[in-house]
Design goal:
With 276 residues, the chain is of the alpha+beta class. 18% of the residues lie in helices and 33% in strands.
């Protein structure tokens, strides 16, 4: 999956120390990240590459995270040339994977900082905290931390069969599993039951946790579960959410390509009886 970047190690501790010349600059334009592409691999500009035309960059920056000893910083209003713009969709499949992960994670933090520039309580300008990843309003004291939306991915099984679906009204037309966000006041297991019932009208039992995944593409923390049908396997489709949902025998599951998503891994895990 996209966060599996070993032997590299991701460090999300907030350490806003001054960048050095070899630190990476994450520069966004209309929500897309500036990258250089050479021989099919992406890279990011360093401070040293940008400092001649942007002498202020060592004073106006936002620390993001580190991977190994490499530090990544968010910069605004940068003059630069010879770079392409990648959105989260392009970053998902970019190489090397550890820089793709850096890109989508930086994109998530960029979006959070951008949407929390002003206080949602009194409208005043927010100030970045010096000790933790938080913005504070000096006028009313409001504090805001990055928000992560918990969601579930559910592999609904019925003996040798797996339920696959396709979303309605979306560009994404690949087969997927049942998925949805947790609501206020419910446990993640209750989310599993509710989403399956709402989308395909099935009761489920034996909820078994599989794995989680940070999914920066939608600011989400995904929780993967396998469940078994409890009673009737007749599907009642929520046509506002899904274009279709149908049962597939294990050997006939049409998904064969490996991607970096939890959904894909869970489908293939079932298809090949755990032998990925």
């Amino acid at each position: 999956m996209i966060q599996d970047i070993a032997p590299h190690v991701y460090h999300n501790e907030y350490r806003p120390e001054k960048p050095s010349g070899d630190s990476f600059a994450m520069v966004f334009n209309k929500g897309k990240l500036a990258v250089k592409v050479e021989a099919g691999e992406i890279s990011f500009p360093t401070f040293q590459e940008l400092e001649e035309k942007n002498p202020f960059i060592y004073e106006e920056y936002t620390f993001l995270f580190s991977i190994d000893d490499m530090r990544f910083y968010l910069l605004d209003d940068i003059e630069m040339t010879d770079y392409q713009l990648y959105g989260r969709k392009e970053l998902r499949t970019a190489n090397p994977q550890y820089l793709a992960f850096a890109g989508v994670t930086a994109s998530q933090l960029y979006g959070w900082y951008k949407s929390h520039k002003y206080c949602g309580k009194c409208g005043k300008l927010m100030k970045h905290d010096e000790k933790e990843r938080m913005v504070r309003c000096e006028e009313c004291g409001q504090m805001e931390y990055p928000k992560i939306c918990p969601a579930v991915i559910v592999g609904v099984t019925n003996g040798n069969r797996l339920l696959l679906s396709k979303y309605a009204g979306r560009e994404h037309t690949r087969y997927a599993l049942i998925a949805g966000f947790a609501e206020i006041g419910e446990s993640i297991e209750e989310t599993v039951k509710r989403e399956v019932m709402e989308e395909v009208g099935l009761k489920v039992k034996n909820i078994t946790y599989y794995k989680s995944q940070p999914w920066s593409v939608t600011d989400t923390l995904l929780f993967g579960f396998y469940v078994e049908v409890d009673g009737s396997d007749e599907i009642t489709l929520d046509e506002e959410e899904l274009a279709l949902a149908e049962w597939f025998e294990r050997e006939e599951i049409p998904v064969t390509e490996v991607s970096n998503s939890l959904t894909n891994e869970m489908i293939l895990k079932f298809k090949y009886r755990g032998n990925l």
